[in-house]
Design brief:
Blueprint lengths: L6 H54 L4 H14 L9 E6 L2 E4 L8 H12 L4 E4 L2 E10 L2 E8 H53 L13 H38 L9 E8 L7 E7 L5 E8 L4 H20 L3 H15 L6 E9 L4 E7 L4 E4 L5 E4 L17 E4 L5 E5 L1 H4 L11 H10 L5 H16 L8 E8 L9 E3 L2
Parallel strand pairs: 6-16
Antiparallel strand pairs: 1-2, 1-5, 3-4, 4-5, 6-15, 7-8, 8-9, 9-10, 10-13, 11-12, 11-14, 14-15
Helix pairs in contact: 1-2, 1-4, 4-5, 6-7
């Protein structure tokens, strides 16, 4: 399909417009040439007629003017309007003027116009709205004039041109078809192929090749496109290899097969791209307690992944120095604010879970509220206790303490879960997440997270995720020795 704004369409339109214009110019010139030829032919014919009439008029002069009048009336009357519709004869013998009367054109003005025409190089003169072509012959005091209207000559010329028009039109049509086919094969098709190839490359189909073509210019352009496509494919291959290595490195930074006595752990982790800005960790502390965190760096992709890697290093350093969640956040914030860009922030939920004392002490830096499912079926939120990390270097966070019992669960999520959009731009939402946690409370913790994961995927449908997704769940054990497992969901 050729679009109206495309170069191909405009060139085809210009070529065909030029052909039509040339046809019009040719018809005009042909019409003028036809008129000129017919005028010349008519003048010659009229001149020959006067030469034929003059001897007869000279002989009839001896019989008087009536004989001459009768003769020219007879000759003019035999000229039918169909063959010579403007035919008229005038004779001047000395001072006497005779004009044919059968066609009712005789008048003093008519004779004067015929004399003027005979005296001009073009042999033409006007009378009223008409123009005459006149042939004349003179011998002694006798002159014979024969005229024809120019309008009749033009009308005959138009008929002749119109009779030739179908043949001319057919010739022009064949020429236009040949020119269009040649243009399409030599220019439009190669150009369209190049445009399609560049469009596919722009959509990420690197490595595509085009050509060869039948012209040097298109071959050169095709070679440049092929070289660019090959380079992009190589760059994309290297980028993918590097991103795959970065993904494996980032996965190695996440906790794997962590066991904490008295707790059951489960999690799923889904980057929006090859690497993510989400981060979670589980660090054992003294006295069987553990420090858990879920963090979400602004954005996603490589910049966010680098910031998440910094948080991993800072958190391990903080866990060696502090056991209080508020102190951990203050330490992280001080470090992050000192090295991060002004628009690089992070939310984080930090909790110290002590399964022996059955307590959860937590602080939240602007993170999505944690959700606690009680064994009696209730779900409650753990709201933020301070600002996002990286905004104010001297920010502070309060610490909350929560008593938990056997079977209680703490579920932490990043906003990639609650803000997941479907095709109708609807959020998955915190309420839906809380409802899913409530409905699957009697299932095993890893099955519960699998069900939440399935619910989020069903909500998104065919729409690709726009943000990283992370869910971390901790279940307080009942002391019967089946705890301490870390389960990774699909």
């Amino acid at each position: 399909m050729i679009h109206v704004r495309s170069v191909r369409f405009r060139l085809l339109a210009a070529i065909n417009a030029a052909i039509v214009l040339l046809l019009g110019v040719f018809l005009v010139l042909d019409y003028r040439q036809e008129i000129a030829e017919r005028v010349a032919e008519k003048h010659i014919a009229l001149g020959e007629e006067t030469k034929t009439l003059l001897p007869a008029v000279s002989r009839l002069q001896r019989h008087g003017g009536l004989a001459v009048q009768g003769y020219i009336d007879d000759v003019c009357g035999r000229m039918q309007d169909t063959s010579s519709p403007g035919h008229h004869i005038a004779v001047q013998i000395g001072e006497t003027v005779l004009q044919a009367v059968p066609h009712h054109r005789a008048s003093t003005a008519m004779f004067e116009a015929m004399k003027r025409a005979a005296a001009t190089p073009t042999h033409r003169a006007r009378i009223g709205n008409e123009e005459l072509v006149v042939g004349s012959t003179r011998q002694d005091e006798t002159a014979v004039y024969v005229s024809e209207y120019m309008s009749n000559i033009r009308r005959a010329a138009r008929r002749q041109v119109l009779r030739r028009l179908p043949r001319i039109g057919l010739l022009v049509l064949v020429t236009a078809i040949v020119v269009n086919v040649v243009f399409l094969r030599m220019a439009a098709r190669p150009l369209g192929q190049l445009v399609d190839t560049v469009g596919q490359i722009a959509r990420g189909e690197f490595g595509l090749q085009t050509g060869p073509f039948k012209s040097e210019e298109f071959d050169q352009l095709g070679a440049a496109v092929n070289s660019m496509s090959f380079s992009l494919a190589e760059n994309e291959r290297r980028r993918r290899n590097e991103m795959e290595r970065a993904r494996r490195i980032q996965e190695q930074l996440l906790p794997n097969a962590v066991r904490v006595s008295g707790l059951r752990l489960a999690h799923f982790y889904r980057p929006a791209e090859d690497v993510a800005g989400d981060y979670y960790d589980i660090l054992p502390l003294t006295n069987n307690a553990c420090l858990i965190c879920v963090a979400d760096v602004t954005g996603h992709g490589v910049p966010a992944a680098l910031s998440a890697t910094m948080l991993k290093a800072y958190l391990q350093d903080a866990a060696e120095r502090h056991c209080d969640p508020g102190d951990v956040l203050r330490f992280l914030n001080h470090r992050l604010a000192g090295v991060s860009q002004t628009d690089n922030f992070a939310t984080m939920f930090v909790a110290v879970v002590d399964p022996d004392r059955r307590t959860v002490r937590y602080a939240s830096a602007g993170h999505d509220p944690g959700l606690v499912w009680r064994s009696d079926g209730r779900v409650c939120e753990l709201p933020s206790t301070g600002l996002v990390l990286g905004i104010l270097k001297e920010a502070d966070w309060s610490v909350e303490t929560l008593n938990v019992g056997p079977g209680d669960r703490l579920v932490l999520a990043t906003d990639g879960v609650t803000e997941a959009l479907n095709e109708q731009e609807e959020l998955f939402g915190r309420q839906r997440l809380a409802r899913e946690i409530e409905q699957c409370g009697n299932l095993a913790i890893e099955e519960c997270l699998n069900r939440i994961h399935y619910a989020v995927n069903s909500h998104c449908g065919s729409r690709a995720p726009s943000d990283d997704m992370t869910l971390l769940a901790i279940e307080i054990g009942d002391g019967r020795g089946d705890e301490g497992q870390d389960e990774e969901t699909a």
